[in-house]
Each structure stands twice: as C-alpha cells, then as structure tokens.
Amino acid sequence: MLIEISVLIIAAAFAILVFYLIKTLKAATNSLDKVTQTLQEVQTTIDELSYEVKQTIRNTNDITEDVQHKMKQIDPVMVTVKNLGEALSEVTYAVKEVSAGVISRVKQAKAEKGKNERIQPQMPMTAQDRTFQSYDAAYRESKASNSGKWLKYIDMAAGLWHSFRRQKVR
Asked: What is the Cα–Cα distance from 110 to 141, expressed in whole angstroms?
C-alpha cells in the first residue's frame, strides 16, 4: 500500500507540475505572439520609413544637382565681378595718383605764391585799390579754376584710359 500511496503522490505532483507547466507555456506563447505582432508592426513601420528616407535622399540629390548647376551658371558672373573689382581698384589707384599730383602742384603753387608775397613789400592800399585787387583775384581765380578743372579731367581721363588699356592687354 505504501507503494500505491507513493505512486498516487507522484502522479498528483506530476499532474500539478504539468498543470503549471501548461500555464507557463501558454503565458510564454502569448508573450511570443505579442512579440511577433510587435515585430511585424516594426517591420511595416521600417518599410514605410525606408521608402520615405529613399524619397528624401532622391529629393536631396535633385536639390544638390540643381544647386551645382546654378553655381556653374553663376561662375561667369563671379569672374566678371572679380574683374570689375580689379578694374575699379586700378581706376582708384589712377585717380589717387592724379589727385596726389594735383595736390602736390597746388601745394607747390601756394608755396611759390607765399614766397612771392613775402618778397613783395606790403604797401598801404586805398579802398579803391583793394576793390580792384579783390576783383582781379576773383576773376583770375575763376578762369584759373576752369582751366584747372579741364586739366584735371584730362589727366583723370588719360589715367583711366591707361588703366583700361593695361587691363585689356592682360
């Protein structure tokens, strides 16, 4: 009888073990089903995203190609702007040289005029003499400034022409 009770206990323990094992296997099956479902959803999402990423990359490539094409079209404009900048620099240099020459001539003329005035003794002048002298100075100055302006313009034009010819030779 002891053997029968032992077999009965073993059978009951085995039945309980099988019952809990079946419960555990069902829970594992449910978990694996949920994991499978989640993986399928992730796969679907990845497929959709990969399509969108491919489209984005294609659009980016198209935009890059368009920008490169436009940059190639702008290159001649940039070369022209560079050449214009160089020409303006040379013109500025020529004008600066002309201005320096004119300023030195004016300073030299003033210095000579100052020497001449110092040499001549100052005589007391009447009101009429002062009026004639101021009229002569104004009249001569306006004539001198007009002829001086023409000379300045001619010097500047010659400098510009020289710069232009030098630019064309290059």
From this structure: 13
> Distance between CA 62 and CA 65 in Å, rounded?
5
CA dihedral 53, 58, 61, 67 (to 10 degrees): -110
Q: How far apart are CA 95 and CA 160, in angstroms?
A: 8
- Check: pTM over 0.70? Answer yes or no: no
Structure confidence by residue, pLDDT tens digits, 78-90: 888 888 888 888 8
* Helix, strand, coil percentages, rounded to 5, for the chain: 95, 0, 5
What's phi and psi for 123, nearest 5 deg? Answer: -105, 145
Buried b / exposed e over 19-28, threshold 16 CB at 10 Å, is eeeeeeeeee
pLDDT digits (tens, 9 = 90+) for 105-149: 888 888 777 776 555 555 556 666 666 666 666 666 455 455 556
